[in-house]
Design goal:
Layout lengths: L4 H5 L9 H11 L2 E5 L4 E3 L8 E6 L2 E6 L5 E7 L4 E2 L14 E4 L3 E6 L1 H5 L9 H27 L3 H16 L3 E3 L4 H8 L3 H13 L3 E4 L2 E4 L2 H7 L3
Length: 230
């Protein structure tokens, strides 16, 4: 895993950890390293939980299947992002969601008892790891709450405007690149891809936005805000 130490050090879990101590920490945490090909399933919802994951290479989607059998993307993860942390402090022992590699990927899995249990070596960094975990879980809960807001908006245009305006506020500029492709975006908003593409085309024709591939430019922010109430 030496080639991925830089990525691991940038993970929220290891925030505040000095680089020269990272390797010793990993020895204590005993992570399991795995590689994946495109579309490989990294985790499957309902299967036994194997440890808190950190994506080291590539990109992956986190999704759940609705009772009707539709796949809904919760969010996308990139190198350094964690997954499975939501159940680290719970009594559940099964993966809550499916994680799928978008392309070639690599990840490590850290047994949760190594993080939330007592460290036999009494490592000084153990409390720091737990604090980082709690911050990450809180931020993830806020993100899921935001997704719930999107799902409660009735109109297709309203959902799209909410997503684009949130990205605008996050980036601080009217031109930005979306982290999701069209299929992923449709799954995230729980809408059909063709209907979403038609609505984006209409918004472009009306002069609300402009786009090329995943790059978006917001042209009429007041109109986008008004669409939230339609």
């Amino acid at each position: 895993m030496k080639e991925y130490l830089d990525v691991i050090s940038k993970s929220v879990l290891f925030s505040g950890v000095e680089p020269d101590k990272l390797q010793d920490m990993l020895k204590c945490l005993s992570p399991i390293f795995r590689k994946y090909r495109r579309n490989d399933l990294i985790t499957i919802a309902g299967e036994p939980f194997t440890g808190i994951g950190i994506l080291l290479k590539g990109e992956a989607s986190v999704s759940k299947e609705t009772p009707s059998g539709n796949r809904m993307v919760i969010h996308m993860i990139k190198p350094g992002d964690m997954f499975g942390e939501m159940i680290a402090f719970s009594d559940h022992s099964a993966w809550p969601a499916t994680v799928q590699a978008v392309g070639e990927a690599a990840a490590i899995f850290i047994p949760r008892e190594k993080i939330i249990g007592e460290c036999q070596r009494l490592c000084s960094w153990h409390r720091l790891i737990i604090r980082n975990m709690l911050r990450l879980v809180s931020n993830r809960a806020l993100m899921l709450n935001k997704k719930l807001e999107y799902l409660t908006i009735k109109s297709m245009r309203g959902k799209l405007c909410a997503l684009l305006l949130d990205q605008y506020q996050k980036e601080g500029r009217t031109t930005f690149t979306l982290s999701m492709n069209r299929n992923q975006m449709a799954d995230f908003l729980n809408v059909s891809r063709p209907s979403m593409s038609r609505e984006l085309s209409r918004m472009k024709e009306e002069g609300l936005i402009d786009y090329h591939l995943s790059s978006i430019r917001l042209l009429d922010i007041p109109a986008l805000k008004r669409a939230l109430d339609e």
